[in-house]
TrEMBL record:
InterPro entries registered for this protein in UniProt: 6-blade_b-propeller_TolB-like (IPR011042), Glc/Sorbosone_DH (IPR012938), Quinoprot_gluc/sorb_DH_b-prop (IPR011041)
Domain Glucose/Sorbosone dehydrogenase, chain residue ranges per copy: 49-376
Signal peptide: 1-25
DNA-binding listed as a keyword: no
Protein name, as recorded: PQQ-dependent sugar dehydrogenase
Keywords, sorted A to Z: Signal
Length: 380
């Protein structure tokens, strides 16, 4: 495995404050950036949601939106949000709750959607991420989920953070799941634990025989890559390469090109340090571990990720678009083969939880928190 080049691509004028009063740098407010050039888009409010987390467009132009407390809504073309019933109970709290929603590649013929959510354990205070699929039945007043089938589960552990559970279907029609390490550190290096891993499954939850550790059996057979921390964005580019971003500790948010069977180093190395100030060895001390293509310190607190393929924003063609929570921005990534760097940062004034590309090439953003806006970005 080659050693990758580390790059710190921050826009200094828009760097966020490393506020010492916050428990987590990813929750820190952005610093006052002062005068900045105007964003190249108009942001129009379309609807509001309560703690939205993810969204995906349906073939008819309607939009599915998850809310962390366990609500799935469908937004009609006219802008009215209606509730989808049949969502399983979620373990709400901290970073836990209802997570991602995506469509099966053959959704038009089978009506299947895939959802992720935090699920309570049998022991008090424990929970784990769960991925399920169900049939989506739409009606004039909303709709319902039926035939819910759980496909994958994290172990139930204490705490309410670092679930990950972002979902994507790849060009191979395999189901890809980001499984964060639940702030348990060492399991990220253990192939017998699903924590701190990128998981690859068939669409029915079975294990592909070409996974890198398939012959080891058990949990290891499901693993594509390991040594990850808190993975909150996943996207394939036009060359079918998989890119994932993850939150670092105190500093060191990462954007990684995911390679088969590779170890990305957490918690052995990082570009950041522990929240109590304890240093972590840097990636360049371990050339045997896979280093990030881009990293940020101060952090941007990445959430949501899409690689733009539309024509409405020609200058964004092939770019990655990342939602920034602490940075309160939309961050554009420029790719050059197997390398990446931040190209621009567009201040939004609010924490951005999710990014999606609309059917006609407009870009859609979900703000974080209560009474959060769904914004449609159109070029100026």
């Amino acid at each position: 495995m080659k050693l990758k080049t580390l790059c710190l691509s921050c826009v200094a004028a828009l760097a966020l404050s490393a506020a010492a009063t916050t428990a987590c740098a990813h929750d820190a407010p952005a610093a006052d950036a002062g005068a900045a050039k105007a964003n190249p888009f108009t942001a129009t409010e379309v609807a509001r949601f309560n703690e939205p987390w993810a969204m995906t467009f349906l073939p008819n132009g309607r939009l599915l939106v998850t809310e962390k407390r366990g609500v799935l809504k469908v937004l009609t073309i006219g802008g009215s949000a209606q509730t989808i019933t049949g969502v399983p109970a979620v373990a709400y709290g901290g970073q836990g709750g209802f997570g991602d929603v995506i469509l099966h590649p053959q959704f038009a013929s089978n009506g299947l959607i895939y959802i992720s959510y935090a699920e309570k354990g049998s022991t008090s205070g424990t929970a784990g991420a769960t991925v399920a699929r169900a049939k989506l039945n739409l009606t004039s007043s909303g709709g319902s989920l039926s035939n819910l089938q759980v496909l994958w589960r994290q172990p139930k552990v204490s705490g309410s953070n670092h679930y990950g559970h972002r979902l994507a279907f790849g060009p191979d029609h395999k189901l890809w799941i980001t499984s964060s390490e639940r702030q348990k550190f060492d399991p990220a290096q253990d192939l017998n634990s699903p924590l701190g891993k990128v998981i690859r499954l068939n669409d029915d939850g079975s294990v592909p025989t070409d996974n890198p550790f398939y012959n080891r059996g058990g949990v290891a057979a499901t693993v594509w890559s390991y040594g990850h921390r808190n993975l909150l964005g996943i996207a394939f580019d036009a060359q079918n390469k998989l890119w994932i971003h993850e939150m670092g500790p105190k500093g060191g948010d990462e954007l990684n090109l995911i390679e088969r069977g590779s170890n990305y180093g957490w918690p052995l190395v990082s570009q950041g340090d522990h929240y109590d100030g304890t240093p972590i060895p840097r990636h360049n001390t371990r050339p045997d571990l896979n280093a990030p293509e881009a990293w940020w310190n101060p952090v941007i607190a990445p959430a949501g990720f899409v690689i733009y393929s539309g024509t409405r924003f020609p200058n964004w063609a092939g770019s990655g678009l990342i939602g920034g929570l602490a940075s309160q921005a939309l961050v554009r990534i420029k790719f050059n083969g197997n390398t990446a760097a931040e190209a621009e940062r567009y201040p939004m004034g609010k924490r951005i939880r999710e990014v999606e590309q609309g059917p006609n090439g407009d870009v859609w953003l979900l703000e974080d928190g209560t009474n959060a806006r769904l914004l449609r970005l159109t070029p100026i």
